[in-house]
Amino acid sequence: MILINYEFKKNGLIALFVLALMPFRSLMAQIGGDGTFEFVNIPITAKIAGLGGYNVSHPDDHLDNMYLNPALLRDSLDQSMSFSWTPYLADINAFNAIYGFKKIPKIDIATIGLTYFNYGEFLRVDENGETDGSYYSASAYNLQITDTQSLS
Q1: Cα–Cα–Cα angle for 145, 38, 19, nearest 5°?
Q2: How far apart (Å, rounded) are the C-alpha atoms in residues 124 and 95?
C-alpha cells in the first residue's frame, strides 16, 4: 500500500510538471517566427514607427491610421493620398500607398491601401549547396480595404 501510494505521488508530480510546462510557447517544435505574414507587424510609416508601432488614440489627419486604428479616420481625409517608403537593413524595402475617399453612402470614410514588402535578392542554391550564380528576389503584398461608420 505504501509502495503504490509512493508511485502514484511520483507519477502525479511528473504529470503535473509536464502539464505546467505545456502553456509555454517556447516548447513548440516550429522553427522561425510566430506565424505567417509577419511583415504586416512591421511599422511601415515614420509616424507609426516613431510611436513604437502602436497608435491607440492619437487623432490626427493621417491615412496611416487605417492600419492600426481605423476609428481615427476622419471626414477631412476625403480625396487624400499617402505614400511612404521605408528602407530596412540589407536590401529590405517597404512601400506603402493609401487612398481615402467618401463616396459610399452611410460610410464616413473608406480607404484602400497597398503595402509592398521586398526582402531583397537571394543567391539561388540547390539542395546540395551548389549555386549556378543566379539570384532571385522575394516579396510580399498586402491589400487592405477599410470603411468606417459613426455610431451616432
Answers
A1: 120
A2: 25
Q: Which three cell numbers stand for residue 56?
A: 491607440
Beta bridge partners of 140: 117
DSSP state at residue 23: T
CA atoms of 35 and 68, how far apart (whole Å): 19
Residue 70 DSSP one-character state: G
Look up residue 99 and give its three cell numbers: 487612398
Locate 81 and state its grid cell: 493620398
Overall size of the chain counted in residues: 152
Residues pairing with 110 in the sheet: 101, 147
79-136 per-position pLDDT tens digit: 889 888 888 888 888 898 999 888 777 777 888 999 898 988 889 888 888 888 899 8
Structure pTM?
0.65
Amino acid at 56: V
